[in-house]
Specification:
- This protein is an alpha/beta fold.
- Among the domains are: about 1-40, no CATH class; about 160-290 and about 320-330, Rossmann fold, CATH 3.40.50.2300.
- The protein is about 35% helix and about 20% strand.
- Helix 1 packs parallel to helix 10 (about 290-305) and helix 5 (about 160-170) packs parallel to helix 6.
- The relative contact order is 0.14.
């Protein structure tokens, strides 16, 4: 059994079988600070087996440089201790992700690092991981009903990553104007970023002429933007839910010969920073996160679980704005 303790917010301890019940009966007026919840992981404690631990890993898109960095960092950290990572790439296909996770479960990993292609679509696989008694560290994008499935979550403060972009847009365009938003409604991380961006610009004279799902993909974003810019060539800004989306927007905007549109992304990727550093670039800013920090924290949490230590339910990782004015401080040849 795992125990969830809401410290300082609610003075009670609730117990659930491989799932938190601390959210049960919660009302909007009693919003729970998830960073204040701690989880007893003693049920998962196990000695290191001969040959080391074996952990499984899945992310929504293994070709995305952000996730490449996370996977490489997790694998390197585990290797330092003689442990193994088995990974799979569903290429943003949740049906494939479920199938791949079923294959991984059959290998009886000691723990699972999980990033969902779809927050709700992945639930059938989560049910199987739960039934197998395998602890999940959820990273970057939250799974749906996470209190029922995961031990802990770590990821960027995605709402703030979008919010700082919106605040910058307000400063750059104090008179407002027409804008385009390319989001991804099935990715909770992008939903949070978009909400932060929209909340920041609300009441400042901006008119969203189009909001579409780019699936977090460069090519998809470019194709969508090619259509949208034909109808709305005078937009003052375009927000992309991640840096690949923003780079797809950039390719489209450059194809149309636009000179004044401001393009925003979220990630702080080397490719985005390198393009933004070029003179006259249309890339205005990115809400930056650190995949290295996320990976290191995920590994730390997993080892604490193996030792049966108490862990937090949520570990947020700081996000901040990178613009042409400060990009030199972070470099363009790697992640921060």
């Amino acid at each position: 059994m795992r125990k969830a303790l809401i410290a300082g917010i609610m003075s009670l301890t609730m117990v659930a079988s491989f799932g938190l019940s601390a959210f049960a009966g919660e009302t909007e007026a009693e919003a729970v600070d998830e960073t204040a919840i701690t989880v007893d992981t003693s049920a998962y404690a196990k000695e290191r087996p001969e040959g080391g631990y074996v952990f499984a890993y899945t992310c929504m898109d293994g070709s995305n440089p952000f996730f490449v960095t996370i996977e490489d960092e997790i694998r390197a950290k585990l290797a330092e201790n003689g442990d193994t990572l088995i990974s799979s790439d569903p290429a943003n296909d949740v049906t494939r992700q479920i199938s791949q996770m079923e294959d991984a479960i059959a290998q009886q990993p000691d723990g699972y690092f999980v990033n969902p292609a779809e927050a709700e679509g992945i639930i059938p696989a989560l049910d199987q991981v739960k039934d197998a008694g395998i602890p999940i560290v959820n990273f970057d994008t939250e799974v749906a009903d996470k209190e029922d499935y995961i031990v802990a979550y770590t990821g960027s403060d995605n709402y703030n990553a979008g919010k700082v972009c919106g605040e910058d847009l307000v400063a750059q365009c104090p008179d407002g104007g027409d804008i385009i938003v390319l989001d991804s409604p099935t990715m909770n991380s992008v939903v949070d970023r978009t909400n932060g961006f929209l909340d920041a610009i609300e009441g400042h004279g901006f008119n969203i002429v189009a909001q579409q799902d780019a699936k977090g993909n460069l090519q998809e974003a470019q194709t969508i933007c090619d259509d949208l810019l034909q109808a709305h060539p005078d937009v003052v800004a375009i927000f992309g839910g991640n840096d690949p989306t923003a780079l797809g927007i950039l390719a489209s905007a450059e194809g149309f010969g636009l000179k004044n549109v401001l393009i925003y992304g979220v990630d702080g990727s080397p490719d985005f920073k390198a393009e933004m550093s070029k003179e006259g670039s249309l890339l205005r800013a990115t809400g930056a996160q650190s995949p290295i920090s996320i990976a290191d924290k995920a590994v730390e949490i997993m080892y604490d679980i193996m030792e049966g230590k108490e862990v937090q339910f949520r570990y947020p990782v700081e996000t901040f704005l990178i613009t042409p004015d400060n990009v030199a401080d972070y470099g363009t040849d790697g992640w921060q």
